[in-house]
């Protein structure tokens, strides 16, 4: 009885060994056999994590900028308009000095665009064209915000800084420019950022549907 039993065990061992070899090898077009790992690396998961990260970062940063501009629209600028012109000039000079010297603000302001552009490129390459279109639209809207900032708001900020000490100021025409041009363009920046944030929110919805399949 021992010999047949050992024979059955040997047969099962050989059968199991052949199954392992079959799973671990593939035959090429030339008929040659090569070994492949039984465990495959999931590269798609890592790629999707990068896509998720870029989309989330761009959404959060654009949201922060929209909130900043909105705060100036509804509280800062209306509040300053209630005071005298010297207070207006001094306060805006201080606001601008703090923001200009804040590295975190500069990082958020610029990286928001870079993250959105990178996210749109990744989504387009992954074949999620609907997501890419919405993220690309958000990037375009936010780019307009940067253009307005560098061509209108910053020059006015510099002009206000060059005016010097508000206590010695006699010409307050710069205040009229702020109450007119600066305030108006800031409202436009708020609307553009809000539109960009809405586009990113739509992109997040489409991204969630696409990756859930």
Number of strands: 2
Helix content: over 70%
Enumerate the strands of the largest sheet in spatial order, edge to edge or round the barrel.
1-2
**Number of discrete domains:** 1
Strand content: under 5%
Order of helices and strands: HEEHHHHH
Major sheet size, sense and barrel closure? 2 strands, antiparallel
Q: Provide the residue-averaged pLDDT.
A: 85
Task: Give me some keywords for this one.
single chain; about 210 residues; mainly alpha; two-stranded antiparallel sheet; 6 helices; about 80% helix; elongated
How would you summarize what this structure contains?
The chain has 213 residues and is an all-alpha fold. It is built from six helices and two strands. The chain is elongated.
